[in-house]
Amino acid sequence: MKTAHNGIQSSPEREALLSLLRSGLWGSDPDDGFSCFPLSVAEWDNVFRLARQQTVTGLVFHGLQHLPDVLLPSEALLMRWAAETDAIERRNKKMNAVLKDIVAEFHKRELNPILQKGQGTARFYINPLLRECGDIDFYFNNRQAWEAALDLMRSRGAALKKQGDGSVVYRWRGVEVEHHQRLFDLYNPFKQGTLNRVEQQKGYSRFALPAAPGGESVTVPSPFLELLLHNLHILKHSLGRGIGLRQLCDMARACYLLHGEINPGEMKAVCRKLGIGRWCLLLHAFLTQKLGLPESCLPYPETASTAQPLADIVWRGGNFGRHNAKFEQNATGWQRKCQTARSFGDNARFAFRYAPKEASWFLLQLMKGQII
Predict the structure, then answer these.
(1) Farthest CA pair distance, the chain
(2) What sign results for the dihedral spanned by CA atoms 66, 282, 367, 342?
(3) Which of 145, 222, 237, 321 could form a disulfide with 241 if both were Cys (CB 3.0 to 4.6 A apart)?
(4) 217: part of which helix (H) or strand (E)?
């Protein structure tokens, strides 16, 4: 095991995971010429465990198809991996069906929700069904639509629960759905005017739902807003409990397909206005150095010299920090709030280096959340 520059220890398992993940993301042979392989039985078990913690099991399984037979894991592990990947595909198909039905319910009442991330992001992948799904996130850009949507779900028997950030969550046909009153994850109130102007200027696009070819479609952010949305979402969780590889893969695939539809100079100017210029360079470094995104596909062509500070956060906690060894995995209520506060404490140096103003407002919001 070797130590990464100024960071936590790297390992053959992590390097192998990233190699296979790049193969799965881009549909190509490992870019390191199979230098991470062969692996022992124990190392392969760890690669599988890491893939699950980072919620990239299906993508990494797709990457396995580019390995020569002599370098593959045992047949028993391959079968288990295939079963997990099949389950991911089935969950995605269910999610797509639920999404189609709930969007149809809204459209019948002339409501037009904007789909955030999730199944909308899956369209950027070579095989959308291999991206692990979570919940369904809708954004409503005016108060009247927000209230009408909640009234509709309430009338259909959904048990609505308000979250600390003002969003509302409920379950619909076994799938968690969240309604949001803002498009972007940014706590600095002095930057909301900039975000509102960008949203109004760039607007939205339409996306044909995968479960309804030629039929139902849903509104999604325009390419410029899509890339900014992923950027700020990753930043929010990096400052808090943590972030995993799946969300960074989402950003990489979105950049790959959408970079030609945005103005790099305009994106750079907006990011600087938002106070996240240094953060963007670190994010760009991770996308290119760790995930293999071509630099020509970045929102604008500037990167930090190393991606290690963000990589440390990714490896420390996995998907949204849920696998941080310091924390109780089933924590709720006050325990979870305390864990979030402790995570920010662990990440404080990182936060105030890469997004100092946003970190200050994030801390204020966190303190408020501990009290309420």
Answers:
(1) 60
(2) positive
(3) 321
(4) strand 217-221
Helix (H), strand (E) at residue 306: none
Note the pTM of the prediction, 2 decimals: 0.91
Q: Tens digits of per-residue pLDDT, 196-229?
A: 999 999 999 999 988 766 678 999 999 999 999 9
Q: Which residue reads 């392989």 in tokens?
A: 37
Element (DSSP H or E) covering residue 210: none
What does the block give as tokens for 333? 């209520």
d(CA 96, CA 243): 24
Query: If DSSP states are collapsed to H, E and C, what string results for 77-127?
Result: HHHHHHHHHHHHHHHHHHHHHHHHHHHHHHHHCCCCCEEECHHHHHCCCCC
Q: Is the omega angle on the peptide bond into residue 12 within 30 degrees of 0, that is, cis? A: no
Model confidence at 240, pLDDT cuts 50, 70, 90, reads confident
User: What is the distance between the alpha carbons of residues 358 and 350, in angstroms, rounded to a whole number?
Assistant: 12
H or E stretch including 218?
strand 217-221
Nearest Cα to 282, choosing from 321, 315, 309?
Answer: 309
Which ranges of the chain does DSSP label H, i.e. alpha helix?
Answer: 12-26, 41-53, 57-64, 75-108, 118-122, 143-155, 192-202, 223-239, 245-258, 264-273, 277-289, 308-317, 333-354, 356-371
Burial class (CB in 10 A: 0-12, 13-18, 19+), 215: exposed
